[in-house]
């Protein structure tokens, strides 16, 4: 999703802005640009494509002389195609802006200002912010009152940084429902959509509230109210494990992050386990978890899939009724909420717009909210009644891998603790489950990682030339099938569908023709044989079948499935372990097809617009 950076200080701004934009590339984008106070005045350079293209263009056009201040942007197109004219910054009169978010009433505002004779030069919603600021600034000559006016006119979400052409070396910024941080460092003052863009210069940052304005000058980082009254802000420190540590020896971030899985489990266990038992006491200020008579899990994408596996754990261990809801649905079609409900919001970034909106809706209805978050001090962490951090470390590849593992591990622990409190599991049983989680699971994962050559060979067979792929399973295997299908489709662009194995014959089996790949996941005692019969059904129709299972299959089954991969971890943790297999399967599939693994087309890491 779009990224913003702003700088004012003693160093040359263009190089710092370009560096910051590169650090924001992981968010996903399709065009980029910057605007600086050049000796001759405001100068904009932007282009469709990569930050490297902007850099090249800047090198060709840069003026002589020092430049100490500017703003930069990576754009993920929402309104208007990813072209140079729609790339940010946008200029109107004396004002130049970059914007993240969506201005929902842009069409009517554009019509209003077009009728007044304002030239509109792009197809974006963002440009209207520049127009509004310029219109007000022309009247008052005051940046703060221009910001107040722009805010009063727009509906939607924004993090916006603005330069006013006659206020050399000053950057203004303001936000609503979109992330923005401000950081004072040794080399000057920064603002950015997230701290990765500035973390190489310092580890402390502030978060402006929605009625505040950030003002950067060379000397000062000021956060004030719209009337200019200075505000003293809490300063957050970046946690050591939330720094981007680079790709290391790996070719891609995605591969590195898949290899981080055992560590993500260990660190998350370390945080919530004492003496071999789960312990969430220190984090549970409102005793949320023990009072709940029903749990709702709300999230998007992979985080929602982690929640679905969590549902299985809560229901199986604790006997708690659980519903899972897509955040973008929940926010508008909130199901009836009951006294005794606890809503769990799962999010890696902590900044996903739909998840945040759903959480705000729940809070409005007075339901306790618990956030399971990977990014410290993110909006979800700040806004929820209670937060439990996963300790996966920074996730940079767009496709979520280790965060899913950490989320499911945390939910597993929480379900065990609730089950113990409710007397549904003995302390000995919980202790054994924790031992499995803490020691057997990371070992199981490490074995899969060590076998990546076999997985690459399998993935080559199933992904090289196929246009589609089906994943089937039952129970927790079905939850894993959903995540595995999502992972493969987002990075390899193969059309993937996940089905509850028993549901296939109610329609979708019509799509099973000779050689169509089907991945069957079969584990546990309850439904192993049932899934195997569904495997036989698709095999009888000529599908090419890969069976991923927790045991050595019978001799007969071994001849029916085209390929078998055994992960010898019996019990409820099989799905967590097998997730690593499927992440590698997706990674190698994407690699085989020549896809941009870390930055799949059209996708963004942190989906900060609705
Ligand atoms: C898929 C993926 C997305 C995210 C989703 C939620 O690999 O990364 O589906 O899981 O956009 O993001 P967070 O967890 O940041 O709320």
Folded structure, characterized:
The strands form 6 sheets. Strands 3-2-4-1-10-9 form a 6-stranded antiparallel beta sheet, covered by helices on one side. It has a 6-stranded antiparallel beta sheet with strand order 5-6-7-8-12-13. Strands 18-17-19-20-21 form a 5-stranded parallel beta sheet, with helices on both faces. With about 600 residues, it is of the alpha/beta class. It starts with a strand and ends in an 18-residue tail after the last helix. Strand 2 (about 30-40) and strand 3 form a beta hairpin. Bound molecules: fructose -6-phosphate. Fructose -6-phosphate binds near residues 303, 352, 400 and 606.
Please sum up the structure shown.
A hairpin with a 6-residue loop joins strand 7 and strand 8.
């Amino acid at each position: 999703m779009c990224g913003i950076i702003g700088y004012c200080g003693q160093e040359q701004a263009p190089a710092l802005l370009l560096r910051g934009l590169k650090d924001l590339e992981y968010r996903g984008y399709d065009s980029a640009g910057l605007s600086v106070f050049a000796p001759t005045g405001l100068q904009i350079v932007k282009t469709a494509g990569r930050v490297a293209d902007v850099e090249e263009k800047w090198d060709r056009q840069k003026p002589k002389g020092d430049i100490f201040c500017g703003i930069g942007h990576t754009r993920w197109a929402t309104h208007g195609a990813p072209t140079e004219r729609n790339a940010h910054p946008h200029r109107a009169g004396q004002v130049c802006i970059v914007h993240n978010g969506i201005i929902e009433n842009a069409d009517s505002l554009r019509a209003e200002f077009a009728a007044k004779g304002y030239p509109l030069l792009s197809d974006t919603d963002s440009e209207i912010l520049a127009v509004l600021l310029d219109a007000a600034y022309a009247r008052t000559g005051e940046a703060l009152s221009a910001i107040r006016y722009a805010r009063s006119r727009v509906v939607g979400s924004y993090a916006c940084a603005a330069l006013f052409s006659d206020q050399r070396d000053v950057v203004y910024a303001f936000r609503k429902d979109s992330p923005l941080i401000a950081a004072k460092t040794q080399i000057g003052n920064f603002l950015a959509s997230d701290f990765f863009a500035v973390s190489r210069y310092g580890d402390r940052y502030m978060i402006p509230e929605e009625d505040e304005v950030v003002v950067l000058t060379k000397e000062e980082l000021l956060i004030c109210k719209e009337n200019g009254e200075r505000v003293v802000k809490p300063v957050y420190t970046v946690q050591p494990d939330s720094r981007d540590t680079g790709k290391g020896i790996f070719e891609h971030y995605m591969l590195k992050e898949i290899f981080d899985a055992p560590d993500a489990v260990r660190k998350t266990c370390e945080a919530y386990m004492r003496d071999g038992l789960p312990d969430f006491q220190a984090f549970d200020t409102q005793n949320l978890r023990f009072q709940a008579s029903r749990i709702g899990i709300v999230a998007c994408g992979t985080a929602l899939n982690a929640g679905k596996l969590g549902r299985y754990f809560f229901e199986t261990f604790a006997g708690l009724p659980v519903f899972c809801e897509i955040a973008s649905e929940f926010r508008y079609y909130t199901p009836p909420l009951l006294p005794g409900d606890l809503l769990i919001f799962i999010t890696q970034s902590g900044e996903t717009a739909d998840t945040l909106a759903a959480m705000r809706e729940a809070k409005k209805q007075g339901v306790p909210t618990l956030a399971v978050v990977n990014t410290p001090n993110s909006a979800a962490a700040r806004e929820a009644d209670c937060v439990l951090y996963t300790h996966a470390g920074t996730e940079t590849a767009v496709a979520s891998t280790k965060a899913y593992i950490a989320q499911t591990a945390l939910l597993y622990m929480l379900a065990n603790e609730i089950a113990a409190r409710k007397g549904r599991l003995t302390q000995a049983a919980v202790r054994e489950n924790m031992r499995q989680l803490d020691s057997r699971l990371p070992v199981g994962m490490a074995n899969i990682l060590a076998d990546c050559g076999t997985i690459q060979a399998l993935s080559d067979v199933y992904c090289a030339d196929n246009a589609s792929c089906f994943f089937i399973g039952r129970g927790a295997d079905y939850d894993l099938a959903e995540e595995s299908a999502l992972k493969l489709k987002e990075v390899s662009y193969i059309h993937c569908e996940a089905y509850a194995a028993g549901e296939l014959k109610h329609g979708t089996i019509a799509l099973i023709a000779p050689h169509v790949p089907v991945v069957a996941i079969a584990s546990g005692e309850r439904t192993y044989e049932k899934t195997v019969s569904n495997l036989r059904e698709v095999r009888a129709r000529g599908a090419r079948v890969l069976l991923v299972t927790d045991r050595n299959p019978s001799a007969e089954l071994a001849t029916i499935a085209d390929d078998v991969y055994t992960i010898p971890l019996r019990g409820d943790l099989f799905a967590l372990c097998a997730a690593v297999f499927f992440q590698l399967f997706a990674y190698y599939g994407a690699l085989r097809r020549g896809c941009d693994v870390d930055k799949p087309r059209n996708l963004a890491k942190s989906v900060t617009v609705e």
